[in-house]
Write the structure tokens for this entry.
Amino acid sequence: MTGINIGVLAVQGDVAENISAIRMAMDDLGMEGVVSQVKTPEQISDLDGLVIPGGESTVIGTLSLINGSMKKIKEKIASGMPVLGTCAGMILLSKKAKDRVVGEMEQPLLDYLDIKIERNAFGRQKDSFEAEISLEKIGIPKFRGVFIRAPSVVDAGKTVEVLSKVDEKIVAVKQGNIIGTSFHPELTEDLAIHKYFVNLVQKKN
Ligand code: GLN
């Protein structure tokens, strides 16, 4: 195979939107490679980069734990594979997550990003909103963030770069090759974040 191999974890959530955003980002950059849905540890082991989409982190985490994907993703992260986690995806990448209303609960996490998450930090589905944000540190001065039952980062360790905030709440982070966003870049036409990510995958390759 020529080019990079990017997978979108396809357990639950907005998989199709991320596949098309990655495809368009690669095409716009004239990059060779494939992007496909991945579910099994075998499919994950072949990847150069992974997107964990938004959805319901408890569902994605529990099902991925059962079929062995969580373990495989952890191994790949340890070997340096870039991952983009949007919304539920960022929750899954974190070391600690609690819900704004329900509080602490058992849920499988990948235990990588040194952050504490507050799930549903901005309220329920009806409190979804869009906001103009900025991710200057990765060269994206303006971006339209779509927030749907979005988490926020309430605490970030020293190795974590804070990329963006909304109302004093941290909504995007980077640690090594791992990026997490509270919002859904795949639901806007702006491909800047997906392009940044595919470039990261290309560089690592
Ligand atoms: N609130 C969801 C969770 O905690 C995430 C929402 C989303 O991904 N849009 O898993």
Observations:
- The mean pLDDT is 96.
- Helices lie at 15-28, 41-45, 57-66, 69-78, 88-93, 192-204.
- The first strand starts at residue 4 and ends at 9.
